[in-house]
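TICKET: design request
STATUS: open
ATTACHED STRUCTURE:
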């Protein structure tokens, strides 16, 4: 049976089973999490939570967590709704979008389509240009073009934005996004990676939520704090919308360990600054070293903690050869607009980045890629 290309990164368990090794031996460049997390404070909180928070049900209103998150944004807690990862919240945003025409910049994160399909809704692709050396201004214009809205009627569209974009890593400037709030019936902005980007917070739309009832901002703690397994994200939107979502969902979608872990880290600015310093150092290092590997390999600029690569030839043999060595990179065959000539690589720690570059250099040497 041929293996389907993965829809998400991070299939570490599967590769470890295949190589018959411990998952910790796999170097994972496919899921873009901060590579030195989670913070110690999170581990400590979880140990305490095992004593105090496993037996009782979580507080169904998540009041304390909502207060802590709201405080980090200077908002009232009624504007915040914690979720079982950002992924759960996409499902409710999609329910709100089901009577609208959803516009999805492509190539893009597949989970929005999954969320829309839950309600029998489909998205309309909005192709992004795949050459963006000319800066963000020119490619953001595609979303505001009248052609995009043609045949939809006034504000009959729901626009799904990922900032920075996945898989390209392009950063949407806040001033380029703001006008879109006047053009679409609903704007869902997924800021899962934004808190990792040095200077990224200035492009967040969170502070606009009180002014725009049609705005939903979804954030994730997964990437910044390397806690994908705990499942914790949150939405910032108008209280009436969030109240509606609360009535639709399960009574306790976020478990108590995630709540306690979230409380321990959510306001940790020292951690965030450490992450910014790491990304500002390692992002350019990785690009510089990947760029030198071979002339047919192109590395695209990006603001997030991953980089997109393309090649004149299929990159599947390279990806498979790395996997044989226990190195996982993100196969892009599940993005229909990209296919097998593209890879997405997370930025790791220096010693791991070095190992990746060395392994890639060895595969690329003596191969057709040099052509
Ligand atoms: C753009 C983007 N948003 C959201 C998520 C999922 O976040 P969470 O783990 O909080 O569900 C991912 C996961 O890969 C992602 O790439």
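STATUS: resolved
RESOLUTION: sequence designed for all positions
ATTACHED SEQUENCE:
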């Amino acid at each position: 049976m041929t293996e389907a290309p993965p829809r998400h990164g991070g299939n570490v368990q599967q590769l470890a089973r295949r190589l018959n090794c411990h998952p910790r031996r796999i170097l994972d460049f496919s899921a873009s999490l901060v590579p030195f997390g989670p913070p110690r404070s999170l581990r400590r909180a979880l140990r305490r939570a095992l004593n105090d928070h496993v037996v009782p049900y979580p507080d169904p209103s998540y009041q304390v967590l909502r207060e802590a998150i709201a405080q980090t944004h200077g908002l009232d807690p009624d504007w915040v709704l914690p979720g079982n990862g950002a992924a759960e919240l996409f499902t409710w945003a999609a329910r709100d979008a089901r009577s609208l025409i959803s516009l999805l910049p492509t190539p893009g994160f597949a989970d929005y389509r999954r969320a829309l399909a839950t309600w029998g809704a489909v998205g309309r692709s909005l192709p992004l240009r795949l050459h963006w050396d000319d800066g963000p201004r020119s490619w953001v214009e595609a979303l505001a073009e009248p052609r995009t809205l043609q045949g939809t009627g006034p504000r009959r569209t729901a626009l799904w934005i990922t900032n920075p974009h996945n898989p390209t890593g392009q950063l949407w400037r806040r001033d380029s996004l703001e006008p879109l709030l006047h053009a679409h019936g609903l704007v869902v902005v997924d800021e899962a990676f934004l808190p990792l980007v040095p200077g990224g917070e200035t492009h967040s739309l969170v502070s606009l939520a009180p002014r725009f009832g049609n705005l939903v901002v979804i954030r994730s703690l997964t990437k910044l704090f390397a806690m994908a397994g705990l499942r914790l994200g949150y939405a910032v939107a108008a209280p009436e919308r969030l109240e509606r979502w609360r009535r639709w969902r399960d009574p306790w979608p976020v478990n108590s360990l995630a709540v306690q872990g979230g409380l321990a880290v959510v306001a940790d600015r020292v951690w965030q600054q450490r992450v910014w310093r790491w990304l500002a150092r390692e992002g350019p290092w990785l690009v510089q070293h990947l760029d030198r590997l071979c002339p047919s390999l192109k590395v695209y600029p990006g603001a997030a903690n991953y980089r997109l690569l393309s090649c004149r030839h299929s990159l599947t043999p390279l990806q498979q050869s790395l996997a044989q060595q226990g190195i996982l990179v993100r196969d892009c065959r599940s993005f229909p607009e990209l296919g097998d000539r593209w890879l997405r690589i997370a930025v790791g720690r220096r010693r791991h980045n070095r190992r990746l570059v060395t392994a890639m250099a060895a595969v690329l040497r003596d191969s057709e890629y040099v052509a």
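CLOSING REMARK: Residues 8, 85-87, 109, 162, 166, 190, 192, 220, 222, 228, 233 surround pyridoxal-5'-phosphate (CB under 6 Å). The longest strand covers residues 101-106.
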